[in-house]
Amino acid sequence: MGAQLQAGGGGRGKGRRRRSSAPMSEINVTPFVDVMLVLLIIFMVAAPLLTVGVPLDLPETEARALPAEEEAPLTINLASDGQIYLQKTPIPFGELALRLPAIAEERADGRVYLRADAALDYGRVAEVMGLLNKTGFNSIALVTDGIIPTPVEEQ
Fold first, then answer.
1. Residue 132 near residue 112 (C-beta atoms within 8 A)
2. Which residue did the predictor score with more confidence, 120 or 1?
3. CA nearest 111: which of 68, 150, 73, 64?
4. How much of the chain, in percent, has pLDDT values that exceed 90?
5. What is the pLDDT of residue 17?
6. How far apart, in whole angstroms, are the C-alpha atoms of residue 76 and residue 20?
7. Is the pLDDT of residue 147 over 60?
8. pTM across the whole model
């Protein structure tokens, strides 16, 4: 009924030796993997937000993408309802005709990206392209969604 105490170190047996603390030679990669997964999720969420903000249904082609440039590209967007956007700002056609010559003088590159909705009438696209050419933008790049070409089956 009484408790017996052992002499010699709080419950350790006399025959047990104490380990020396040697440096650990293994790397714990769990925190590294956790940080990398969080960064991956952040970039996956942020990447779609970096594109031009006007939602359009672009036509699909097999053309290659253009190389990246140092200067921010000038983008003209044509929505399916005929609304014209200079970058992300809606602008009437007449005001666009007044602004483009001043923009062409400021820019070192005469390239402009034209994004037009696939449902839009080709005449409206040609009208805007003519205005761009008239105001000094001689390099007009039509932006499309790229598709992966399907291999042609041989018969």
1. yes
2. 120
3. 73
4. 9
5. 60
6. 71
7. yes
8. 0.52
**CA–CA gap between residue 13 and residue 29 (Å, rounded):** 36
- Residue 74 corresponds to which amino acid? L
- Exposed (0-12), middle (13-18) or buried (19+): which is 132, by Cβ within 10 Å? buried
More confident residue, 44 or 150: 44
Of the candidates 84, 79, 119, 116, the residue with the CA atom closest to the CA atom of residue 100: 84
Burial status of residue 80 (CB atoms within 10 A of its CB: 0-12, 13-18, 19 or more): middle
**Tokens (6 digits) for 30:** 């769990």
Measured distance CA(106)–CA(115) in Å, rounded: 22
Number of residues written out for the chain: 155
User: What Rg value do the Cα atoms of the chain yield, rounded?
Assistant: 33
DSSP-assigned states of every residue in 101-124:
HHHHHH-S--EEEEEE-TTS-HHH
CA contacts within 13 A on the Cβ side of 74: 21
Task: For residue 94, give both structure tokens.
Answer: 């007449």
